[in-house]
Design brief:
Blueprint (H helix, E strand, L loop, with lengths): L6 E6 L5 E5 L2 H7 L2 H12 L13 E5 L13 E6 L6 E6 L3 H7 L2 E7 L6 E6 L2 E6 L8 H12 L3 E4 L2 H4 L7 E3 L2 E3 L4 H7 L2 E7 L9 H17 L1 H9 L5 H8 L20 H8 E5 L9 E5 L9 E4 L2 H6 L9 H14 L3 H16 L5 H4 L10 H6 L32
The chain binds iron/sulfur cluster (SF4).
């Protein structure tokens, strides 16, 4: 199999140096692609003693071995860096199309070093690679930034950060076509580099040494998937289809900051309830036939206008059971806000549930927070997320103006709520 871009692209945002090297044979043989490439390149180039927000921290983006080919469930792209949340190496994966474009542009991996002096984005258009001014995108929501990039330079796939990453929220994520590399704060690493977006477009064909065999294996894999009971359920109800089993049969559903492990009110956050009512159509990661995502739309009530790709199992527990929130519309709104601000839904919900317990124990008060942040108050969940991801916007409610912070060496923000 030689489904490769052929080169490693290195961009130093401080010096502006752009380098290409052939993908070493040993790397291909030993690490295949995707996460393997990204981890190896990161470990080779990063001094582990450096802080995650040190400009010398390295961020690697690498499409999987089969990304860009017609193989279901194999279209992912890995982001690897030092996490500002855990202080160690971390990976986060998106099912958006950035990796396929990188490969078609000729790259098996993109290594980003240094820090831009002002808000920037990376434009990769086959051999043409430029660090460009992103001042007009800074402060925009993830989706809006991607759209603005496309409006300005054409039909590129963009991975963007939102105000959360810009504000160095330690669990800020990266969005690509509504599929998030959400975990471990790698969006904050981009923010610390003043890097708002990576936009890629490739015109090359991926060469496969035995295309017939690849198709045979892909069709075979499709058959294996379809035989699994989970295939139909996942396609209909998404990754939360087993929520009822986790909650009621196993009794291990995170509930009210893990004070309980069975959420009695889970009925309305169960996809068997909401998927037929709010799921307009299925959504998939790149090249996936399973399509476990749902285009979720709220068309009336206080959260009318909420539109998102979801809702994943992990988000159902974090912004649902963990907060004692049985209102799927409030949950969807909080999920949408997380996606727009570029914040990981899992960490966000876990923090909100933790704050709710602090309030319950009298350690924090609603006045201090500015939101009536109690368990079983669904409205509190989206209100707690309606911030820019910094303490400046603690008060809740969706922002109507973009964040404008562009400080060069601003101190790390440790809270997203
Ligand atoms: S659509 Fe679902 S099943 Fe398919 S790759 Fe994405 S997460 Fe996996």
């Amino acid at each position: 199999m030689h489904a490769r871009g052929g080169h490693i692209l290195t961009v130093n945002l401080t010096s502006g140096r752009i380098g290409r090297e052939k993908t070493p044979k040993e790397l291909k043989a030993d690490f295949l692609g995707g996460e393997g490439f990204a981890v190896k390149l990161f470990v080779d180039r990063m001094d582990p003693k450096l802080d995650a927000f040190d400009p010398r921290n390295v961020l690697v983006v690498a499409p999987g071995l089969l990304t860009g080919l017609p193989v279901p469930t194999a279209g992912k792209t890995a982001f690897v860096s030092k996490s500002p949340l855990t202080g160690t190496i971390a990976e986060s994966i998106t099912g958006g199309g950035i990796g396929a474009q990188l490969k078609a542009a000729g790259y098996d991996a993109l290594v980003i070093e240094g820090k831009s002096y002002s808000p920037s984005y990376l434009m990769i258009d086959d051999d043409k690679v430029e660090i460009r001014d992103a001042s007009s995108y800074w402060g925009k929501f993830t989706r809006d930034a991607a759209e603005a990039v496309r409006n300005d330079i054409g039909d590129f796939v963009a991975a963007t950060i939102g105000p959360g990453g810009e504000s160095l929220v330690r669990y800020a994520g990266i969005d690509c076509e509504d599929r998030q590399a959400g975990r471990a704060g790698l969006g904050a690493v981009m923010g610390s580099k003043n890097l708002k977006a990576i936009a890629a477009r490739g015109s090359g064909d991926l060469m496969v040494s035995n295309a017939q065999k690849l198709i045979f294996l892909a069709v075979n894999w499709q058959g294996v998937m379809e035989k699994s009971n989970a295939f139909v359920e996942d396609t209909k109800y998404g990754s939360g289809e087993f929520l009822g089993w986790v909650n009621s049969e196993r009794g291990v559903f995170p509930t009210r900051n893990w004070k309980q492990s069975v959420f009695e009110e889970r009925g309305r956050i169960d996809p068997y309830y909401w998927a037929p009512r709010y799921g307009i159509k299925n959504k998939a990661c790149l090249a996936c036939t399973k399509a476990c995502g749902k285009l979720f739309v709220v068309s009336e009530g206080p959260y009318a206008g909420t539109v998102l790709d979801g809702i994943e199992y992990e988000t159902l527990y974090s912004l649902g059971g963990q907060c004692g929130n049985p209102d799927i519309e409030a949950l969807a709104k909080a999920n949408e806000l997380c996606d727009l601000y570029g914040i990981d839904t899992i960490s966000a919900g876990v923090v909100i549930g933790f704050v709710m317990e602090l309030v319950e124990r009298g350690i924090l008060s609603a006045e201090e927070i500015g939101v009536d942040c109690r368990f079983d108050n669904p409205d509190a969940v989206p209100r707690m997320k309606g911030s820019c991801g910094s303490r400046r916007n603690w008060g809740g409610g969706p922002r109507t103006t973009p964040c404008t912070s562009r400080e060069w060496n601003r101190p790390p923000t440790t809270s997203a709520v």
